[in-house]
Amino acid sequence: MECNGCEFRPELYYDDQYQIWARREEDGTLTVGMTDISQTVAGKILHVRVRRPGTLRPIGKPVATIESGKWAGPVPNVFDCVIEDANHDVLDDPNLLNIEPYEAWIARVRPSASVDEALSVMVTGDAAQAGYCERTRREDIHCERGAR
Amino acid sequence: MADHHYLDNEEKSVVIVMTSGPSTANRCATPFYIGAILASMEADVSIFFTMEAVKLAQKGVAESFAAMEGGKTIIEFIRDAKAAGVKLYVCRPAMPGYKLTESDIIDEVDEIANASKMADLILACDKSMFF
């Protein structure tokens, strides 16, 4: 489903600004990526750097740094975790984040507490959809995917 | 995979002294972009507006121009830096020269500070940059 052309996936978990998404994995990790809103705001992404696997990430410390031609900033983190892996395909071709933001994950992280506790600070489902759509309207964001 | 994709720098402090202003528009976006990058790499970043740069902190000014034709306005670069965690200071002694008072300064600024604040920041930081 979409709001202002911004794709939303109800099964994922989001931070309260809808900058990042997280997906629960069977091995107790979470996969983290950028939302369609974030990749649109950033524009064509030229460079991604992820914290080295094994690094502890406290709340508020970025998982990764994103650089586009017009925007630079962090991929934020909303729970304590350790970086387990980075998506090498995205590191080698950051533009994948613009093309398929929900397939092109950035990092796999292992929460310091339980997965349920980590996800408890995020929003999902109908509540997330309402907030996601509200941000696209409030900031007049119209998403475009596939910028090469 | 190239190792340079991984970030493992230590936390550092960086001071960016911003002296450029509207008369050199093409110098006004990059310092905030660099500040945002550094902050997202967990550097403790301060940008100190002095000389003509205090004009960038005047309400309405940074909204009114871009560093390149058709590009983002300077206020957007300032807000990106702020969102990434950069702290913004305006040089109080430079304000009278541009007929600015405290009420003219944009809300994004963290502190209107004296020159000694800039001196403290520079003496205590790991790296300083001047634009």
β-strand percent of chain B reads: 15-25%
Q: How many helical stretches of chain A?
A: 5
Structural class of chain A: alpha+beta
| Coarse morphology of chain A | globular
Provide the residue-averaged pLDDT of chain A.
93
Number of strand segments of chain A: 12
Q: What's the gyration radius of chain A in Å?
A: 14 Å
How would you spell out the order of helices and strands of chain A?
Answer: EEEEEHEEEEEHHEHEH
Which strand order spans the largest sheet of chain A, edge to edge or round the barrel? 7-10-11-5-4-3-12
Helix content of chain B: 10-25%
Largest sheet of chain A: 7 strands, antiparallel
Biggest sheet: strand arrangement of chain B: 5-4-3-2-6
Q: What would you note in describing this structure?
A:
The complex is a heterodimer of chains A (148) and B (131). By secondary structure, chain A is of the alpha+beta class. Chain A is 24% helix and 32% strand. Chain A is built from 5 helices and 12 strands. Chain A has a 7-stranded antiparallel sheet. In chain A, strands 6-8-9 form a 3-stranded antiparallel sheet. In chain A, strands 1-2 form a two-stranded antiparallel sheet. Chain B is globular. Chain B is of the alpha/beta class and 131 residues long. Chain B has helices at residues 30-40, 74-84, 115-124; strands spanning 6-7, 13-18, 44-49, 87-91, 111-113, 127-130. Chain B has 3 helices and 6 strands, in the order ββαβαββαβ. In chain B, strands 5-4-3-2-6 form a 5-stranded parallel sheet, with helices on both faces. In chain B, helix 2 (74-84) links the parallel strand 3 (44-49) and strand 4 (87-91). Chain A binds chain B through residues 48-53, 55, 61-62, 64-67, 70-74, 86, 88, 91-92, and chain B through 1-2, 4-8, 33-34, 36-37, 39-42, 71-72, 80, 83-85.
List keywords for this structure.
heterodimer, A: 148 residues, alpha+beta, seven-stranded antiparallel β-sheet, 12 strands, 24% helix, 32% strand, globular, B: 131 residues, alpha/beta, 6 strands, 20% strand
